[in-house]
Specification:
Layout (H helix, E strand, L loop, with lengths): L7 E4 L3 H12 L4 E4 L3 H20 L5 H9 L1 E3 L11 E4 L5 H14 L5 E4 L6 H5 L8 E6 L8 E6 L5 H13 L3 E6 L6 H4 L3 H10 L5 H10 L12 H8 L1 H14 L10 H8 L14 E2 L2 E2 L18 E4 L5 H10 L3 E3 L9 E4 L6 H4 L8 E4 L12 E6 L5 H11 L5 E5 L7 H17 L5 H12 L5 H8 L1 H15 L8 H9 L8
Parallel strand pairs: 1-2, 1-4, 2-3, 4-5, 5-6, 7-8, 11-12, 11-13, 13-14, 15-16
Antiparallel strand pairs: 6-7, 9-10, 14-15
Helix pairs in contact: 1-2, 2-3, 8-10, 16-18, 16-19, 19-20
The protein binds nicotinamide-adenine-dinucleotide.
Nicotinamide-adenine-dinucleotide binds next to helix 1 and helix 4.
Length: 512
């Protein structure tokens, strides 16, 4: 197999640079590594030797192959070591001025048709390319950490990038066993842009006092099921893993780069906790506390046990597409059904809002007896790990507890929320779909590449567009329109990409 590049230079021997070196050396291409800190190169070389020793030990790589791979890696004390390279990948500190200076210096040692790629996560590839005489040879090549295991790479073209550069970089990635997705140079590219919903919308719900962060994590891990899978980590567990010092600036940067677009507005909670140094796992304390790499159990965050299953509850279910399923559930849990057109004076009133809050759904009914059940995800008898209900501010504690005990009667765990337009799952999932649709609408990448990048880059159970298809585009639209109407917050205005496909009955993966 002919590699599209014969010799690759890597600048920056940090976490990313060493991963990129490993990937391409393993794929059979000679690689030269340079860093302004000789100690960083030494550490990277030591790390590579250790990595391959471990791979040989585990039987994943033969001793000969490991030796051949290591022999393909050399180091250079200065940039002149890159003279014969037809590709140089930059993975240095995330500063525009420093990257621009490096790119100018690289142009002096490389032949005019050599490609220069940047691994930047948040800077404009176009702005970096603007520093050089031949911007057509500059592209983004955005890998994820750890590079050898995260099989996705965004191949980013700016307005001046020569399309053949993107084709060659994509081919190199494929030959190395990675999945390339070609995208336009826009803030956050695909993955960091698409990630502006899971954490930020959860922080927004937390900021509204809907429930605590441990409960939001439990809901998104246990209630959500897309194609039989949920999120592996809750949003606050994920923020702790990434570190708020990394994630909060990304949230701010994308918000400002899109000229204060409401959909991406970060939370003041993130800014405050960052200022307080509650960064996450790396400092032993974030939303959770950590010792020796594990979460320290905190009784204050534990779930309180459900009230005992009540007897003699009469339940009335509001009209809606899932009225029959909700009635079957409540009857199966031991309630007597009230099937009147209006609830009798002693019935528990069960609402099933999509997008709107319990208060809005309870209009014209006795809100003191009203609770809302989230029906977006499977909620049937013995068919789910977690059910989620919420109350109106007028709901009496005795009615809330009766509903809580009833919904937990088959052993399902139950989260009880304060009123929120869209519960937790509806608002977080609808925002993931909404942001994914905006990325598609801007033609940042093809719909299928958007989904591939998000699935592999963020580990979501599905890409945002397939997620929207699984829920149903019309339902996602209804949720967003409901949230938009109740909150009057432009954050929730539905994307045109979603609205058109929902109205036409098309898949969100449908391009035009
Ligand atoms: N760490 C991640 O998860 C991640 C993921 C994707 C992209 N990125 C991007 O990759 C790049 C590198 O990130 P990292 O985490 O590997 O950083 P790092 O801090 O681990 O390593 C950066 C290395 O670059 C060297 N360096 C700094 N200025 C230099 C210069 N002018 N010339 C040569 N070497 C120089 C430093 O000595 C250091 O060894 C950044 O642009 C970052 O945004 C990081």
């Amino acid at each position: 197999m002919n590699s599209p590049f014969s010799r690759i230079g890597v600048v920056g021997a940090g976490a990313m640079g060493r991963g990129i070196v490993q990937l391409f050396a393993q794929a059979g291409v000679p690689v030269v590594l340079h860093d302004t800190q000789p100690s960083a190169v030494e550490a990277a070389m030591g790390h590579l030797r250790d990595t391959f020793a471990r791979l040989v030990e585990k039987g994943k790589v033969s001793a000969d192959a490991a030796q051949a791979t290591l022999a393909r890696v050399s180091s250079g004390e200065n940039l002149s070591a890159f003279a014969g390279c037809d590709l140089v990948i930059e993975a240095i500190v995330e500063r525009l001025d420093i990257k621009q200076t490096l790119f100018r210096a690289l142009e002096d040692v490389l032949s005019p048709d050599a490609v220069i790629a940047t691994n930047t996560s948040s800077l404009s590839v176009t702005a970096i390319a603007a520093a050089v005489r031949h911007p057509q040879r500059v592209a983004g090549y955005h890998f994820f950490n750890p590079v050898p295991l995260m099989r996705i790479v965004e191949v980013i073209g700016g307005p001046r990038t020569e399309p053949s550069v993107l084709t060659r970089l994509s081919e190199l990635a494929r030959q190395s066993g990675h999945v390339p997705v070609v995208c336009q140079d826009t803030p956050g590219f695909i993955v960091n842009h698409a990630g502006r919903a899971f954490g930020p919308e959860s922080l927004k719900a937390l900021g509204e006092g809907v429930t605590g962060y441990a409960d939001i994590d439990r809901i998104l891990r246990e209630q959500v099921q897309i194609g039989g899978q949920g999120f592996k980590l809750g949003p606050f567990e994920l923020l702790d893993l990434t570190g708020l010092d990394v994630s909060h600036p990304v949230m701010e940067s994308i918000y400002h780069q899109y000229y204060e677009e409401a959909r991406y507005k970060p939370s003041v909670i993130g800014a405050q906790r960052l200022a307080a140094g509650l960064l996450g796992r790396k400092v032993g304390e974030g939303f959770y506390r950590y010792a020796a790499g594990s979460v320290v159990a905190d009784p204050a965050l534990a779930e309180s046990p459900a009230p005992a299953a009540p007897t003699g509850v009469r339940a009335w279910v509001a009209r809606g597409p899932q009225q029959a399923d909700v009635r079957a559930l409540l009857e199966g849990l031991g309630a007597t059904l009230d099937t009147g057109a209006q609830p009798s004076p002693d019935s528990l009133i069960v609402l099933t809002p999509l997008g709107i809050d319990a208060t809005e759904a309870a209009r014209g009914l006795d809100a003191r007896r009203a609770v809302a059940l989230d029906t977006l995800m499977p909620f049937g008898l013995r068919a789910c790990k977690r059910r989620v209900m919420m109350t109106t501010p007028a709901t009496g504690a005795e009615w809330r507890d009766r509903a809580h005990g009833l919904l937990a009667a088959d052993g399902a765990r139950v989260s009880v929320l304060r009123d929120s337009a869209g519960f937790i799952a509806q608002r977080v999932l609808a925002m993931i779909v909404s942001v994914g649709c905006e990325i598609a609408q801007q033609r940042v990448a093809s719909p299928s590449d958007i989904d591939t990048a998000v699935r592999l880059g963020l580990g979501y159970p599905a890409g945002p567009l397939s997620m929207g298809d699984a829920i149903g585009p019309a339902r996602v639209l209804e949720i967003l329109e409901g949230m938009h109407r109740v909150t009057a917050d432009p954050r929730y205005r539905p994307s045109a990409w979603l609205r058109r496909r929902a109205l036409l009955g098309l898949s969100l993966l449908n391009d035009d």
